[in-house]
Amino acid sequence: MYVNVHTMSMIRYSVAFVFIVSGTMKIVSNEVAAYFLSLGLPSAHTLLYVVVFLEIGCGICIAANKWVKYASIPLIIIIIGAILLTKIPLLHTDVFNFLFQVRLDFVMLLLLIALYF
């Protein structure tokens, strides 16, 4: 299937924007960092900085159209982790709330998969 070069550029810029902003917010917002740290992950502080580095670094690579396939892989892992840790538990309370909360993560996952292929 043929995809217009401009369409792929817009997808790249959109994905890059989301992850660069997400990584930056984990640094500049105490509230966002505290939420991440509250997830109960092992070595949460170290993992926070690894995720920040990957989100910003891979986002920059995707925006610059450099190593897009390789930069997509860690971001796919991060978004799957985010869905598993923060969205799947919502299934136990309300399916419609889960669907509402997971919608953007799901779209980002699909766009990352499109960038990978």
How would you describe what is shown here?
With 117 residues, the chain is an all-alpha fold. The chain has five helices and no strands. The longest helix has 24 residues, at 5-28.
* Major sheet description: none
Q: What's the number of extended β-strand segments?
A: 0
Helix content: over 70%
Class by SSE composition: mainly alpha
Q: How much of the polypeptide forms β-strand, as a percent range? A: under 5%
For the record, the count of structural domains works out to 1
- The string of secondary-structure elements, in order, is HHHHH
For the CA atoms, what is the radius of gyration? 15 Å
State the end-to-end distance: 11 Å
As residue ranges, the low-confidence spans are none
General shape: globular
> Helical element count?
5
Briefly say what this structure is:
This protein is mostly helical. The chain has helices spanning 5-28, 30-37, 44-63, 68-87, 95-116.
